[in-house]
Write a structure and sequence with these properties.
- It contains twelve helices and 19 strands.
- With 416 residues, the chain is of the alpha/beta class.
- The protein folds into two domains: 169 residues, Lyase, Ornithine Decarboxylase, Chain A, domain 1 (Beta Barrel); 237 residues, Alanine racemase (TIM Barrel, Alpha-Beta Barrel).
- Strands 1, 2, 13, 14, 15, 16, 17, 18 and 19 form a nine-stranded mixed sheet that branches. An eight-stranded parallel sheet has the order 5-4-3-12-11-9-7-6, with helices on one face.
- The longest helix is centred in the C-terminal third of the chain and has 18 residues.
- The radius of gyration is 23 Å and the shape is elongated.
Length: 416
């Protein structure tokens, strides 16, 4: 992997044809050390957030040596890049073949479930193994997440006691509970509230848990979203754990994804065409910008120009993006604030894309190839002190935005 001091250096040296994932291993290393030093338990990285080999290696080298995996390919990736690491198969619904392969071929002993049917499947596929660690995923009510994960997984409070009791009886090793408060959780208190709900479920079932897994949801920084300090999340979890009906040897786990890797990657894209307030890029919603399109997720942006004798304008205006495919939903509405003179051939760096960026890319329409290069500049924002804790948003009122967009679209109509 080639290293550049800044993304601008890469632009002027290579003028890349394809999108480039600009990786910052130092940012991931710092986040890993922070969780290692501040979370009072075992940190499992949620591999789905960013399965890049360099991410797995960097985390393992900096103290995060447990992984939340959801498939056999993720298991094989971790075994190849962080041999000897601890893995937990935390997808609540798995095929019988993948359960058997995980247990017999890869030595996985920890499995999640949220139904009696999945419990029976795990017992059958492992040959009624006696060394299983079984973790019951609970459905919890949580407030403050930008993405709710409720509805698909998690046993309901009404059904939880019977499943907890059945799981406790099914294993001669460890039994635990887990939950997920939702992605990009902006309220530390959500963790404490969810732990209280988990505690009530255990009391109603009349069982003790050997593991309490608080899941993921730890946030990062985006325009308009400045989360509380991560110290506040740790304090809320500590309070919740102290109040739970657990025994002295109960283990505490977490499954951060976004908070470990969001700052570790930005995406360098090229403007292929400018139409008024619309910029057509060489990556989009079928590539690394899924969240920017389908969830209208705000990402910070900055422009890089190859011609060093043509400095970009200091005046910013709002743009929307279109990706390279033929599909009309390949659209990122923004607004993304960039210099008003941006044009074809200029490059747009989209920041804080290390979580659920390259992991979501497809090959639709023949696009989707993304190069990788390392850069040494800091991320656009940081929860860990590498950069400011907020991302400025231009202070332009709605009327100004409408005026700029109408003006741009009027120029487009006059050109027809």
């Amino acid at each position: 992997m080639h290293t550049y001091h800044t993304p601008l250096d890469l632009v002027r040296e290579r003028s890349p044809e394809r999108p480039v994932a600009l990786v910052r291993p130092g940012a991931v290393a710092l986040a890993a050390r922070w969780f290692r030093d501040n979370f009072k338990g075992d940190v499992h990285f949620a591999v789905k957030a960013n399965p890049s080999p360099w991410v797995i290696e960097t985390l393992a080298d900096n103290g995060v040596q447990s992984f939340d995996v959801a498939s056999i390919p993720e298991i094989e990736l971790v075994q190849a890049r962080a041999p000897g690491s601890r893995m937990a198969y935390m997808h609540p619904v798995k095929s019988r073949r993948s359960i058997a392969s995980a247990y017999f071929d890869h030595g996985i002993r920890t499995f999640a479930l949220d139904s009696h049917e999945e419990l029976a499947k795990i017992i059958d596929a492992t040959g009624a193994a006696k060394d299983l660690t079984l973790v019951v995923r609970l459905g919890v009510e949580a407030q403050g997440a930008q993405y709710s994960l409720a509805g698909k997984f998690g046993v309901s409070p009404h059904e939880a006691p019977s499943l907890l009791l059945a799981t406790r009886r099914a294993t001669q090793d460890l039994m635990g509970v887990s939950f997920h408060v939702g992605s990009q959780c902006m309220r530390p208190s959500a963790f404490q509230a969810a732990m209280a709900q988990a505690s009530r479920a255990l009391v109603r079932a009349g069982v003790f848990a050997d593991i309490v897994d608080v899941g993921g949801g730890f946030p990062s920084i985006y325009p308009g979203m400045v989360p509380p300090d991560l110290d506040e999340y740790m304090a809320a979890i500590d309070r919740g754990f102290a109040e739970m009906m657990v025994h002295e040897t109960t283990e505490l786990w977490c499954e951060p994804g976004r908070a470990l890797v969001a700052e570790g990657t930005s995406l360098l894209t090229r403007v292929e065409l400018k139409k008024g307030d619309a910029l057509y890029l060489n990556d989009g919603s079928y590539g690394a910008l899924f969240d920017a399109a389908h969830s209208k997720w705000p990402f910070p942006v900055r422009m890089h120009r190859e011609d060093e004798n043509n400095e970009p304008s200091g005046v910013l205006r709002p743009y929307r993006f279109f990706g390279p495919t033929c599909d009309a939903i390949d659209h990122m509405p923004g607004p993304f604030w960039l210099p008003e003179d941006i044009d074809e051939g200029d490059f747009v760096e989209i920041g804080m894309i290390g979580a659920y960026g390259v992991a979501m890319a497809t090959r639709f329409n023949g696009f989707g190839d993304i190069d990788t290069a390392q850069v040494q500049d800091p991320p656009m924002a940081s929860m860990y002190g590498m950069a400011p804790r907020s991302i400025p948003v231009p202070k332009t009122d709605t009327a100004d935005v409408v005026r700029l967009v109408v003006k741009a679209r009027g120029r487009k109509r006059r050109r027809k």
